[in-house]
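Is this the right way to post structure tokens for a design question? Let me know if I should format differently. Anyway, here goes:
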């Protein structure tokens, strides 16, 4: 299992394949808060590798296979620093930072803080933290403390994903027997500190090609007026609005996402 060692108690699990096509970029996937490399490596990353692109997926400290000192607070600033370190150590060719949800925020912050990037992909990232989203963010650690991630998913997944995906997922949901997630668990640590994320980005400073993908069936985080306003502030952007997807694009529409990313990569 490839691990990038940070120190004796901390490391990052990653999966990296160099680009095979001449001068092709490498897509660097930045997870959502409770995500993992499997979201990308099941379909999206293999499809991109077939097209000659490089891929780099990894898990945050606190996610599967990545180790962390239990005394650490897994803050957004720490996650951004880890991404910058990963990029500096692996040195992928022409990295395109592709982040899902808050992962897009982490990717954007890493770029603004000097990380090398030839492109940026923001998947269901553009948002402002008003009363509704703030409530949801504060509720997440409370829910998992009572019934773990399964309870959280049973409560919120139908609002996050497209209807076809929800119908298929329903058979495995609502089984009960929920168990509290320990406060020391990585996901609990990440959720507790997610509220520290600064979503006020200087979009006008994104001096690189940026692709914005929005799933219109996202009934939790999507505010189309906010997306429109923030998108207009990006100096070199293009966007796609998907009627057939919600929040979890790599799980809901992986083939479509791979095709979209490949188009963007070829155009850089």
């Amino acid at each position: 299992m490839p691990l990038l060692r940070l120190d004796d108690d901390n490391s990052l699990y990653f999966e990296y394949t160099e680009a095979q096509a001449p001068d092709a970029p490498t897509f660097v996937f930045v997870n959502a808060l409770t995500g993992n490399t499997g979201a990308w490596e099941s379909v999206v990353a293999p499809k991109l590798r077939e097209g000659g692109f490089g891929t780099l997926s990894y898990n945050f400290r606190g996610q599967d296979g990545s180790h962390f000192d239990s005394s650490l607070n897994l803050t957004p600033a720490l996650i951004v620093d880890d991404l910058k370190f990963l990029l500096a150590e692996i040195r992928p060719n022409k990295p395109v930072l592709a982040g899902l949800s808050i992962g897009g925020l982490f990717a954007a912050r890493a770029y603004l803080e000097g990380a090398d990037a030839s492109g940026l992909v923001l998947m269901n990232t553009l948002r402002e933290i008003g009363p509704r989203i703030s409530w949801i963010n504060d509720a997440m650690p409370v829910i998992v403390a009572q019934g773990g991630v399964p309870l959280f998913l049973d409560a919120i997944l139908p609002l996050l994903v497209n209807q076809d995906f929800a119908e298929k997922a329903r058979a495995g949901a609502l089984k009960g027997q929920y168990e509290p997630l320990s406060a020391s668990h990585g996901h609990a640590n990440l959720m507790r500190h997610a509220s520290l994320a600064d979503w006020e980005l200087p979009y006008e400073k994104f001096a690189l090609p940026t692709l914005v993908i929005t799933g219109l069936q996202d009934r939790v985080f999507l505010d189309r007026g906010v997306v429109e306003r923030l998108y207009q502030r990006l100096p070199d952007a293009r966007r796609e609005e998907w009627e057939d997807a919600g929040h979890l694009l790599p799980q809901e529409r992986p083939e479509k996402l791979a095709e979209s990313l490949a188009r963007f990569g070829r155009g850089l």
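Format looks fine. Someone answered above. Worth noting: The chain has ten helices and eight strands. The chain has a mean pLDDT of 97.
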